Amino acid sequence: MVNKPTISVNKLGEYIISKGARQRKILHDRKYPDPDFQMGMYHREASDAVASYIAAGAINPSPLDTVLHSLEQLTPDKVGTARRINANIDALERFGTMLDDIDLMDGEPELGAHAPAKLTFHSVEISVRPEIVLRATIKGKLYIGALKFHFSKSHPHTAESAGFVSAAVNEYCRLHVVGYGDGVVNAAFCQVIDVASGTVFPGVKATKQRLNDISAECQNITALWPTI
């Protein structure tokens, strides 16, 4: 059991647009996680391959093909492992159809931090963990943003849920990437790459109200957590 309320940024986006029963299910799964199922690790191979491809400039897709081929050669004994491997194969195949949609907007990409700080609203810790950080210097000014991946096929993002994710990524960059430096966040960089739906959702510029909504929902999560 997890005593302190926590949630991933992708699940938070889904949570905000869901009805009550689904919201409670999201919180229950987070509070009482299945020890044999780690959502963040389920698409590890696909996520790492996509992140490496984009960090290298999103130019040469051959490493994606290499990972895909290696996964296809595996013959796992356990049913659960076989399902996970097949999910990674499917994710890589779907991402392969999205290559023309990846636009780094002249930003220089790099892999996101391995153990990044979290956002906190009303004692709820939000794990943002952007996979890619983008930086660009335009007319002597440093602009910063980040990309967030999403792989789950059961609950793909909508434009509304992805908007909340983008706003949270924007706030993460403001607090933990820019920090006290001279850079500013470029909202357009804060895109959500939803492999499940084959959609690249653009970074949202209107973040203030979305962050207010996130704060209010986290206040509700804090109140609900002891009842789950």
Write a structural description.
The protein has 228 residues and is of the alpha/beta class. Helix content is 45%, strand content 17%. The protein is built from eight helices and nine strands. Strands 2, 5, 6, 7, 8 and 9 form a six-stranded mixed sheet that branches. A three-stranded mixed sheet has the order 1-4-3. A hairpin with a 2-residue loop joins strand 3 (119-121) and strand 4 (124-127). The longest helix is centred in the C-terminal third of the chain and has 20 residues, at 159-178. The chain is globular and about 50 Å long. 35% of the residues are buried.
Helix/strand structural class: alpha/beta
Give me the count of strands: 9
| Sheet of most strands | 6 strands, mixed
**Span of the ends, CA to CA:** 11 Å
Helix content range of the residues, please?
Answer: 40-55%
Mean pLDDT: 95
What is the ordering of alpha helices and beta strands?
A: EHHHHHHEEEEEHEEEH
Overall geometric form? globular
Helical run tally: 8
* Rg calculated over all Cα atoms: 18 Å
Which tags fit this structure?
228 residues, alpha/beta, 45% helix
Task: Give a quick precis of the structure.
It contains 8 helices and 9 strands. α7 crosses α8.
Write the topology of this structure.
Layout: E1 6-8, H1 9-17, H2 20-31, H3 39-42, H4 44-55, H5 62-72, H6 79-96, E2 108-111, E3 119-121, E4 124-127, E5 132-138, E6 141-150, H7 159-178, E7 184-185, E8 192-194, E9 199-201, H8 208-224
Parallel strand pairs: 1-4, 6-7, 6-8
Antiparallel strand pairs: 2-5, 3-4, 5-6, 8-9
